[in-house]
Each structure stands twice: as structure tokens, then as C-alpha cells.
Amino acid sequence: MNKIILATQNAHKLEELRSVLPKGWEVLTAFDAGIRGELPETGSTLEENAFQKAMYLWNHCGIPSLADDSGLQVAGLSGAPGVNSAMYAGPERSDQANRSLLLANLAGAVDRAATFRTVLAWATLEGIQLYEGVVHGQITHDERGEYGFGYDRIFVPNEGDGRTFAEMLPEEKVAMSHRSRAVRAWLTGLERS
Ligand code: IMP
After folding, report:
1. pLDDT of 25-44, one tens digit each?
2. Is 152 near ligand 1, meaning CB less than 6 Å away?
3. Which of 29, 60, 172, 174 has an alpha carbon 20 to 30 Å from 19's alpha carbon atom?
4. How many beta carbons lie within 10 A of that of residue 33, not counting itself?
5. Quick check: 44 and 83 in contact, CB under 8 A?
6. CA 86 / ligand 1 centre spacing (Å)
């Protein structure tokens, strides 16, 4: 049986990741593997952060490790919040404060294009590989929906039917999310190796 460690501790992200991973795999979290506290995440790009987290887990546990780092890039805000998405409104990492600040900073903007991006880093004995998933969309003027987390209530994917990610059932979001696309790219990479 394949056994892997996921870097994330966020319950929403774990659920999304687990729902697209192959059935029958033993999937541990960093906590399950005995790691306590925050994983290192001091990079200035999603790639650097994903790399750091996966490498840390591999070095400490010796089990193939998958780390994800994601962010929302808003065109009208020169790509912000980007790598700072979790702490956009401050170190408290409040989803509500982050969404409110983003809507305030984008008030009156005509260009509301935004892109969710996930970078996955996969660390094994063979080294480390990076995979990417993106979804393009628009920032709403108001919050809509109850599902999901983070910026889901203010992001409408272009390929959807006008609903925000937070108005979609979890499986509808997963069908087009940046995170599940990155996972599919990783699984394709595994099949080829
Ligand atoms: P992380 O560094 O991968 O934990 O993601 C940084 C931040 O991006 C999170 O705290 C969320 O605010 C936001 N984010 C990442 N993925 C999503 C998503 O799928 N929906 C909404 N917000 C997200």
C-alpha cells in the first residue's frame, strides 16, 4: 500500500486533497507523523514554500511527502495577496478579515479578474518535483455562500455558472479547483515515472 504524508493541517484543504487521492492509500498528516508546530514557510513564492514544507517532512520522516501552497492573485491588485493570502489582513490569519480587506482594496475596480493557484511539491528518495494547478475567475462585490473557506465566498470561477466557490457543493468545487488540478498533474506525473 502507498503511504504518504500531507503537509497541510487545514481541515478544509485535507478534505479536498483526500477526496481526489487514490482510494486505499494510507494518508498521514504531519501531526500523525509526530511533527508538532508549524512547518517552515518562509519563502517569497508558492514554489519556495511548498518545496520547504515537503523537504522538511521528507528529511524528518523519510516517507514520501506532499506539500501544497496556494494563493489568490488579483490582477487589479498587482497580483496581491498571492503568497501572502493567508495573512493578507494580518498575522491572525482571519479569513473574514482577509476577504473584507480584499473587497475594500478592490472597491470601484472594473477589472476584477483573479486566479487561484496551487503549487504541490512531492519529495521522495528520487528528489523533489513541483506541480501546478490554476483556476481563473472574478472577484465578486459581496460575499456569497456558506461552504468552503478562505476566499471562496468572493471568487467566481470563469468556467462555472456564476456561483462563488462557497455557493457550490464541496464536490462541485473540487471538480474545478486549483488544488485538485495540481493533484491530477501530480498523479499523472506518478503514472509516468
Ligand atoms: P496556503 O498557504 O496553501 O494555506 O493558502 C493560503 C491562503 O490562501 C489560505 O489561508 C486561504 O486564505 C487561501 N486559499 C488557498 N486555497 C484556497 C481555496 O481553495 N479557497 C479559498 N481560499 C484559499
Report:
1. 889 999 999 999 889 999 99
2. yes
3. 60
4. 16
5. yes
6. 6
- Please report the domains of the chain, with CATH numbers, ordered by start residue: 3-192 (3.90.950.10)
Given pLDDT bands bounded at 50, 70 and 90, which one contains residue 193?
confident
Lowest mean pLDDT among 14-18, 51-55, 181-185: 14-18
- Rounded CA-CA distance 160/169 in Å is 12
Pick the residue whose CA is nearest to atom 16 on ligand 1. 70
The set of residues, in sequence order, having a beta carbon less than 8 Å from that of 45 and lying 6+ positions away, is: 83
CA 188 to chain centroid: 19
> What band does 192 get if pLDDT is binned at 50, 70 and 90?
confident
**Measured distance CA(122)–CA(112) in Å, rounded:** 33
* CA gap 119, 7 in Å, rounded: 12
